[in-house]
Please model this.
Amino acid sequence: MREVGPTDGPVLVLLHGWTVTADLNWFASYAALAERYRVVALDHRGHGRGIRSRRSFRLTDCADDVVAVADALGIESFVPVGYSMGGPIALETWRRHRHRVDGLVLCATFASIPSAPRGRPRLQALGLLGHGIRAVPHPVRRAGFEQVLRQQTDGRALPPWIFDEVASGDPRALLQAGGEIGRFDARPWAGDIDVPTAVVVTARDSVVPPSRQHALAHAIPDAHHLTLDGDHDVCVMRAAHFLPTMLDACERVTLEAASERGSSLYSPP
Model:
């Protein structure tokens, strides 16, 4: 877990995407966010240095982990900031712990994954594979995962620490997480979201279709709808381009939360 920024500032809890870690997803955002906010970032279960458990990966458990971290830090309420898979975790945090959530910032994410051949069924198959490899010894699973990762990143000049961050995950949990993403569907209840929300759409996203991101923004009542010209990795590969929109989204949500709560904590400096 990482914590930066003023302890008396509005609290943002940063929730990273599938297969990566908090530091990989957010390292380029920490300094800018910490100028104004108390920033907490954690690795989800099975990712990076996150919890290792014999339990199957569940997005709802990740949402409960967010609140457990807040409890441990003495944080009463906060704004979950979810990127990609972190979006469903943020949404589940609101659904399961509404009184703890001041608002939501959702980036490059979705209410549901398409049921097309490359969408939901493929992700659900990964979840089944994750359960099936339980019997494979951990060193063998790890070696196989690292080999696949090296093949996928072949030819790209990635710093060694980025490879190490991704490779630090538990292959079984990561596969199960893919299945969870494929099953996730917030469409029946997204219209009930009653906290200030901003949705940042990555308009050139090759991982989460922009149409799905726009659909999420339209599903949440009165959500701020921001569009960013970037692909799914814009938060890392084009951080200088990503940060102004990210900061705008956080400011909109925290100021609206201040207005609703009558709190000076979220007032402009």
About this structure: Strands lie at 2-4, 11-15, 38-42, 79-83, 104-107, 197-202, 224-228.
